[in-house]
Design goal:
With 217 residues, the protein is mainly beta. The protein folds into two domains: 51 residues, no CATH class; 133 residues, no CATH class. The chain contains two helices and twelve strands, in the order H-E-E-E-E-E-E-E-E-E-E-H-E-E. The strands form five sheets. It has a four-stranded antiparallel sheet with strand order 3-6-7-8, with no helix packed on it. It has a two-stranded antiparallel ribbon with strand order 1-10. Bound molecules: zinc ion. Zinc ion binds next to loops. Zinc ion (ZN) binds next to loops.
């Protein structure tokens, strides 16, 4: 299934030509439930992991000042797969030299109030050899929102602009003034529109695929 972003309701760059300088192309992954293997890009799917490489664990140590020695959890917890991207699918990602696979894992036990504790691996697929097949299930006490359902990805390139708060003050105020008749201005990927400020354009969207949003991907 090919997934695309709806047409822009407003060509904001035509209204504010100076925004063109801030335009960036981003890649939307469009995760959806589906069969994925270790040789596929995925969200929450199996990772291409060497059979002879130990699966990573989180020791739960707190590093923030004043809390050393007070772990977030007392037993080591196996990390869980969050995403795997092959360079052939998302070449825009700045892969490290000699790497063509990006892997994102995180600890399924909350460390802070919102974001999971993440860990990244970069691999060259040809160097993996025999892949790990039997990955243990999530540790007891894992937070359900941090356990993702395996999803395919359908990368799509779209133009994106910064959130108004990240723009120069003068331009930001003009944008807000333009959106004022409708109560404010907000932006989501590729879609600028007049909308109540409480709509929260800076919030990460929740994926309809996994149980948790693919924040930061
Ligand atoms: Zn942890």
């Amino acid at each position: 299934m090919r997934l695309t972003t709806p047409p822009k309701p407003v060509d904001i760059a035509a209204v504010f030509p100076e925004l063109v300088a801030y335009a960036r192309t981003t890649v939307r992954l469009h995760p959806r439930p589906g069969a994925v293997g270790v040789h596929d890009s995925s969200v929450g799917g199996p990772l291409l992991w060497p059979a002879d490489e130990p699966w990573p664990v989180c020791e739960g140590f707190r590093m923030d000042p004043g809390h050393e020695g007070q772990p977030w959890h007392h037993e080591p917890v196996a990390l869980v797969a969050a995403a795997q991207l092959y360079q052939r699918d998302v070449p825009e990602l700045s892969f490290l030299p000699d790497a063509d696979v990006f892997q994102l894992l995180w600890c399924p036990i909350p460390h802070a109030t919102f974001y999971p504790e993440a860990s990244v691996r970069w691999r060259l697929a040809d160097d993996v050899g025999q892949p790990l097949i039997d990955v243990a299930g999530p540790s007891p006490g894992s937070q359900e929102d941090f356990l993702l359902r395996a999803c395919t990805v359908s990368p799509e390139r779209v133009v994106e602009y910064p959130h108004p708060e990240d723009l120069p003050e003068q331009l930001r105020e003009r944008l807000y003034a333009w959106g004022e008749p409708a109560g404010g201005v907000t932006s989501t990927t590729c879609r600028w529109r007049r909308a109540p400020r409480s709509a929260g354009g800076s919030d990460s969207p929740r994926t309809r695929c996994g149980r948790a949003a693919t924040r930061g991907i």
